[in-house]
C-alpha cells in the first residue's frame, strides 16, 4: 500500500506474526508495509497518524477486529488479539526475541522434517503454541534416537503427532480455518 511502511517485519500492525508466515518465508510477500496488497488496517493506520500497532489507537479494538479470527489466510489469525496484548505487555523487543526463537524452530522443522506437505502445519503449530511448548516438542524430537532410521514421511508423521499431543493439552487445533 502506497505510503505505508514498517520497520518491524516480524510482527504486523494488526497482530499477525509475519515472520512465521509461509508466504513471507517463501519470499512471496514482503511483509506488512512492503507488500503490494492493499490492507484496510494499513489504510486505517495512515488515517490515524501512522500508528505502529493497532492497540495504540484510541478506537482499538474497533469493528475491523470483529470476527478477525473467524477465518485464516496464509497465516493463522487465531491469536492476533492475544499476540497484540502479549506484545504490549512484554514490549516489542522481548516479543521479537521470542519470535526469533520461534523462527529458528520453524526453520529447523522446514529444513529437516518437511516432506513437502507440512509447511502450513509447521507454521500454524509455531504460531499457536507457546515457546516453551515448542522447545518441549523439539527436545522430544531431538532425543528420539530412532527418528534417523525412519523415512521422511514417517519422521513427519511422528513430529506432527508430537505437536498434536502438546496442542491437545491446551485444546488447541493446529489447522488453518478456511472459508
List the helices and strands and how they pair.
Blueprint: H1 22-25, H2 40-47, H3 80-90, H4 92-113, H5 119-128, H6 131-143, H7 152-169
Total strand segments: 0
- SSE order, as H and E? HHHHHHH
SS field, number of helical segments: 7
Q: Residue share in helices?
A: 40-55%
Give a short summary of the structure.
The chain has 179 residues and is mainly α. The protein has seven helices and no strands.
Give a verbal description of the structure.
The relative contact order is 0.13. The chain is mainly α. It is built from seven helices and no strands. Helices cover 48% and strands 0% of the residues. The protein has helices at 22-25, 40-47, 80-90, 92-113, 119-128, 131-143, 152-169.
Index terms:
single chain, 179 residues, mainly alpha, 0% strand, elongated
Amino acid at each position: 500500500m502506497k505510503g505505508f511502511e514498517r520497520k518491524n517485519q516480524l510482527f504486523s500492525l494488526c497482530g499477525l506474526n509475519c515472520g512465521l508466515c509461509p508466504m513471507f518465508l517463501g519470499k512471496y510477500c514482503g511483509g506488512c508495509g512492503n507488500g503490494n496488497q492493499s490492507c484496510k488496517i494499513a489504510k486505517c493506520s495512515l488515517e490515524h497518524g501512522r500508528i505502529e500497532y493497532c492497540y495504540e489507537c484510541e478506537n482499538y479494538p474497533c469493528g475491523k477486529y470483529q470476527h478477525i479470527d473467524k477465518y485464516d489466510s496464509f497465516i493463522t489469525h487465531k491469536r492476533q488479539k492475544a499476540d497484540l496484548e502479549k506484545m504490549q505487555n512484554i514490549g516489542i523487543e522481548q516479543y521479537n526475541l521470542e519470535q526469533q526463537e520461534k523462527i529458528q524452530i520453524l526453520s529447523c522443522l522446514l529444513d529437516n522434517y518437511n516432506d513437502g506437505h507440512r509447511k502450513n502445519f509447521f507454521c500454524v503449530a509455531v504460531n499457536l503454541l507457546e515457546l516453551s511448548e515448542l522447545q518441549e516438542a523439539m527436545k522430544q524430537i531431538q532425543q528420539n534416537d530412532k527418528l534417523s532410521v525412519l523415512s521422511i514421511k514417517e519422521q513427519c508423521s511422528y513430529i506432527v503427532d508430537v505437536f498434536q499431543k502438546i496442542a491437545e493439552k491446551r485444546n488447541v487445533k493446529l489447522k488453518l480455518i478456511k472459508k
